[in-house]
Amino acid sequence: LDPAEPRWPYLLAAVEEARGHLAAAGSSLDQVLGLRPDLVPALIARGRVHLDMGEVEAARRTLGRALELDPANAVALFELGRADAEAGDAELAAKRFERVLALQPAASLVHYSLAQVYRRLGRVADARSELEKRGNERVEGSDPWLAEVDALASGSAAYRARGGFAWREGRLEDAVTEYRRAVAADPQSLAARRDLAFVLAQAGRVDEALELLRSALEERPDNALLHHTIGLLEARRGRPDDALPELQKAVDLDPRFEEARWDLARVLADLGQPAEAAEQLAQVLALDPNRQEARRLRAVVLARAGRLEEAEAEMVLAVAATPDDVELRSELARLADHLGHQQLAREQRRALAALDR
Asked: Can you identify the CATH homologous superfamily of domain 7-133?
């Protein structure tokens, strides 16, 4: 192979990324960018790998360069929005996601990402509206070199790579087919079964996904990610009692697993255990103090538990983070009135009047 030809390390990077070998993918992409520093698909892929490795600022720089070269590239905008959200800049992330949807209205999966950042901004009604629009269509991009991956030899890794490409392009049924082939080629591969379960769930085939995940869990009973995924799927199909032990096990195995704690808190709230939900949300906020959706929910469950002074304190912090949230200020004013904190209530009403001008 010609060492000066960038497509070979680029295709290798795509395979490594699909297999979850992010460091190897990053190394290959660095080689590509050494040869072609302005190759937009490589910049996008490198930024995505940086982000998935937790290198948020490097991701923002790399994706920003891609966007400078191609300002209307919806994939670059989407990935940069993800990076902005990870960096805590929910407002900028929202603008990116809104721009993606303006460019590609059919990219319905973006509505979920937009809903998440709206929640962090305290825009609860907008977040609910976006969640209602969520679908399975991903952001489309032009990347002709990836078509050459079809020339890969057969085998579990190759099928997983193809499945990953299909999933990224929003072709869920094609992804299911490729991941089934990956499992058939290597029935012992936990990664292949987990990938298959993920796309089955996205395709609405939750029972099949759960069967696969529970089978994998028999072999890896201490895998926090498997417990969390099972719990999340059970919760989404309206079975909180089945979700609860799985989510609890996930956080027991990995106390810093923020999303598992968040989902556990929501299930506890749904099951009428507000004090326990409040404790989990306190842990979420310890991991991410800027997660305003967690602060708001904590205020709600504290109020349900009769801990009104603590609920008020959480609302005060939430209002400070999202001062333009009319609904939240109104709730705080009502709670302050109930507690006899008239000065705080008057402050909220003055702020509401100013917002209404």
From this structure: Tetratricopeptide repeat domain (1.25.40.10)
